[in-house]
Amino acid sequence: MTVILVIEDEPQVRRNIQEILELSGFAVYVASSGAQGLRCAFEILPDLIISDIVMPELDGYGVFQALQAEESTARIPFIFLTAKASRQDWRTAMNMGVDDYLIKPFTPQELLDAIETRLRRTDHLTRPYKTQLAETAAHLCYVSCHDSLTQLLNNQGLQQVFGLWQIQGKAMPNLMHPASDRPSTVLSSFATGYLLLLQIQNWPSLESLLGQTLSQEILQQVAAQIQGYTHAPLASNDRACNLYRSLDSSVLDPANPLPPFAQLDTPPVASLGQGRFAILRAGQLPVAAVTEFVEGLIDRLQRPLYCGEDAEHEVVLRPIVGLSQWPMDSQTLDGLLSCGEVALAQCQPPNPRQYCFYDPQDRRSGLRALRLTTQLHHALNQSQLQVYYQPQIDLNSGQCIGAEALVRWQLPEVGFISPAEFIPLAEETGLIVDLGRWILREACRSAQAWSAHCSAPIAPKVSVNLSPRQFYASNLIQDIEAALTETNLAPQRLVLEVTESLVFVDPMVALETMATLRDLGLKIAIDDFGIGYSSLSVLQQFPFKILKIDQSFVRGLMENTTTQAITQFIIQMAQKLQLQLVAEGVETQAELVYLQEHGCGVVQGYYFSPPLPLAEFQRQFLPGGGDEAGNGLG
Fold it and tell me: Which end of the chain is more exposed for a tag (fewer CB within 10 A), N or C?
């Protein structure tokens, strides 16, 4: 075996060279300094030496001159590596008798070519080394274009295979340019190719639970399942079989030949990492055929998989697929992948679909969401956000006994952005924690000010919604205590609203957090009751004091006897559990009368008022508040 000594003081460069040479079948010794390299050369007498020039203490020139002075090492082929590219540097090395001179950065092939040239001068190495180089080149080509875990194509390999599609399109214009009367719907009747971007949903969480070894085993099984499915006999109208074979080799660039694996008769499959795969499927296929193909693939991947030494772990995956069409959606692989990402986003919860075709409208919506997310980061510091208050009316006294704090966002030159649009974005990005903290502080400040300006014996309470992210944040209790301390608001006047679904994210943590909040003197309301899990155990186990009837029941109250029965049941249950009731979404006199007759004492809705800016809320609903109080607090 040919022995090569590498003398290089830069660790990363040294490792890269060592890896290339070892993959090529050489025995490699490395040294991190000139002095160390000189000692190693005298000891092992390598077949070739590769040395950097610029090194501390003893540079490459010194190493070469020392070796030349000894008969045993004087004839060893020597290649200099350097970042110096001047003619004078090159001439100095050549005058000393160095065999070759490589300028950084260089490619693996340039390095191998230089080695081949030097070793060719040694007659006893010429013939076997040429074979070795060819095998190495083929191996390097395979390694550079395949995923080491699954042995599927990687992104680079996929790019090369996609090049075949582009060449085929140039040779067959009718495939590249479909009929101009494309249907007005998203999908064309036929496409000349599809890219399927497949994602194992929640893969990061699954990987964390299983650990590296088991998750890699699952990925290998998924890769095998995809290959087994896509490598089945293709339909007669699928042109993948002859897409590769029909290419005239003369159109390929001889300087960059496509690797042998590109000549496949089946759809290429690539592993893109993080539980994501891509499949290229060529041919003028009707949408129905592609849909059938995708549904069959999803069905196969949803079958249980087993991992571990004795297959003791059973795993059921949920794959989702985003599809893009070539060349209609994009004529580049990166463009198709981007379109596939947009389509994948439409398969995320709460959307139950497991595959979607790319729709340009989804990209526009995604771009708007991205812009709003960016602008929302700045909104808190630019006075674009306001807290509005919707009154809660006691039907017995007719007085406002509380108000729900609701955030509103007015974007300059755009107007008000619906909370239904920006709240989910804030939740998704985590900004909801900062936003919720700000709302909490503002609501507490307003409620405390009401005490000073309200002539009623008891000033209204303020209700603040807690999102799941905010509720489960580690600093929730500290944020609430800080808001109460900063504003001097009595805890009894702050109501925290949570949804049923929030409780079930982590019931044990939720119970512990709510117990702490209760001990602080706060009241907790269960919001939107009736539309979530509606588990009676929630009301029994958790320290709720207020139950809010969801507005969806109130709106259909007068037209639907089933809704009336459910509402009556909720009211009676709350009364037996001694929970205060608040009905949301009251808009008509008939709804108000019905709720009052059946024992609901507090209501909230547009019948009395929409959410109002602070000053307007004070003017209309605080006894003695008036414009003066509004001006003082606004």
Answer: N
- For 163, counting Cβ atoms within 10 Å of its Cβ (0-12 exposed, 13-18 middle, 19+ buried), the class is middle
Residue type, 65: Q
* Tokens representing residue 494 in the block: 């702050």
Name the helix (H) or strand (E) containing 6: strand 3-7
Alpha carbon distance 610, 403 (integer Å): 11
The Cα diameter of the chain in Å comes to 112
- Pick the residue with more confidence: 543 or 327? 543
Q: How far is 446 from 439, CA to CA, in rounded Å?
A: 10
Q: Three-state DSSP class for 630? A: helix
- How does pLDDT run across 283-330, given as a tens digit for each residue? 767 788 888 999 999 999 999 999 988 888 899 999 999 999 888 888
Kindly report, residue by residue over 31-69, the tens digit of the pLDDT: 999 999 999 999 999 989 999 998 988 999 899 999 999
Q: Which residues contact 537 (CB under 8 A, 6 or more apart)?
A: none
Prediction pTM value: 0.53
From residue 491, alpha-carbon distances to 206, 407, 487, 502 in Å are: 41, 21, 11, 22
The Cα angle at residue 484 between residues 482 and 487, in degrees rounded to 5: 100
Concatenated DSSP letters for 159-189? HHHHHHHHHHHHH-HHHHS--S---SSSS-S
Residue 279's closest CA among 237, 316, 321? 321
Look-up: residue for tokens 């060719």?
120
Per-residue DSSP letters for 341-377?
HHHHHTTSTT---SEEE--HHHHHHHHHHHHHHHHHH
